[in-house]
């Protein structure tokens, strides 16, 4: 029994070492191999996750130009915008489910992206609200400074300080939400996980891997610029590639 236990522990040790040695480049290479010949479904899922919310928001865009004049129209516009943003969040989580299926070598269909709508979507909505709230808390100083600037400052100074505070707030918001990066993968990976548990699991997964995660994010800047130069056409390939890479990152942290 002792020998069996030792062999099991040694196997787990080797498994842990293997996943610790997986570099970001290797995870990106795995993503390219996984998507080879299978781009159609994740590409269409990504398009639908963007086009469906935009289609529903289109009738309310007419109210945008009038919302400063008519309060009722402004309230209706922002209410519709909030609801449609929640729909977009659910669909983006559905895209993550598609990439999880691809990473595990399973068959992925477009219908899989709507799985989240039938499996306790309230968890994702609550988690998304809390995630957004946490990320925007560091932005409060810039909002307050912009609304109530100290007397005696010129307009140029107020704008410059507001922009600097905004950039600092975005950076701090990114850093404090980094441990929660994988909550949405966890939601779609486990239909029984609750909001608090998803937050705790993500913090446990990213412990010791935050710098690698930052480097992975920065490594796609060139690709995103290339997509912009192609008038957005390149994003059809770049965004699924990014999603698959970060899905692989999530699974490697799970040692799966």
3D structure, described in words:
The protein is an all-alpha fold and 256 residues long. 75% of the residues lie in helices and 0% in strands. The protein starts with a helix and ends with a helix.
Task: Spell out the key features of this protein.
256 residues, mainly alpha, 0% strand
The termini sit apart by: 26 Å
Spans where pLDDT lies below 50 across 5 or more residues: 2-8, 13-19
Query: Care to count the β-strands?
Result: 0
Instruction: Tell me the radius of gyration.
Output: 22 Å
Largest sheet: none
Average pLDDT for all residues: 86
Fraction of residues in β-strands: under 5%
The helicity comes to over 70%
Our count of helices gives: 12
Write down the overall geometry: globular
Compressed to H and E, one letter per element, the order equals: HHHHHHHHHHHH
* Category by helix and strand content: mainly alpha
Structure summarized in a few sentences:
This protein has 256 residues and is an all-alpha fold. It has 12 helices and no strands.
What is the topology?
Layout: H1 2-20, H2 24-35, H3 40-64, H4 71-103, H5 121-136, H6 140-147, H7 155-177, H8 183-189, H9 195-206, H10 210-218, H11 221-229, H12 235-253
Helix pairs in contact: 2-12, 3-4, 3-12, 4-5, 4-8, 4-12, 5-7, 5-9, 6-7, 8-9
């Amino acid at each position: 029994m002792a020998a069996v236990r030792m062999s099991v522990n040694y196997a787990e040790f080797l498994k842990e070492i293997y996943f610790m040695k997986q570099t970001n480049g290797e995870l990106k290479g795995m993503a390219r191999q996984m998507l080879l010949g299978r781009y159609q479904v994740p590409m269409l899922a990504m398009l639908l996750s963007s086009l469906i919310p935009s289609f529903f928001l289109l009738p309310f865009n007419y109210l945008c130009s009038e919302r400063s004049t008519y309060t009722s129209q402004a309230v209706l516009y922002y209410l519709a915008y909030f609801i449609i943003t929640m729909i977009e969040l659910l669909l983006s989580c559905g895209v993550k489910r598609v990439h999880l299926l691809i990473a595990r070598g399973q068959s992925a269909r477009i219908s899989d992206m709507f799985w989240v709508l039938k499996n306790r979507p309230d968890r994702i909505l609550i988690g998304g609200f809390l995630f957004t709230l946490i990320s925007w808390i560091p932005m409060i100083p810039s909002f307050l400074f912009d609304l109530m600037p100290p007397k005696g400052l010129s307009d140029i100074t107020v704008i410059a300080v507001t922009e600097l505070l905004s950039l600092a707030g975005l950076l701090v918001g990114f850093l404090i939400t980094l441990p929660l990066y994988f909550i949405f993968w966890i939601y779609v990976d486990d239909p029984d996980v609750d909001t608090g548990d998803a937050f705790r699991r993500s913090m446990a997964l990213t412990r010791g891997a935050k710098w690698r995660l930052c480097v992975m994010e920065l490594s796609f800047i060139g690709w995103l610029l290339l997509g912009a130069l192609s008038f957005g056409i390149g994003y059809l390939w770049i965004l699924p590639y990014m999603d698959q890479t970060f899905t692989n990152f999530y699974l490697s942290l799970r040692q799966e």
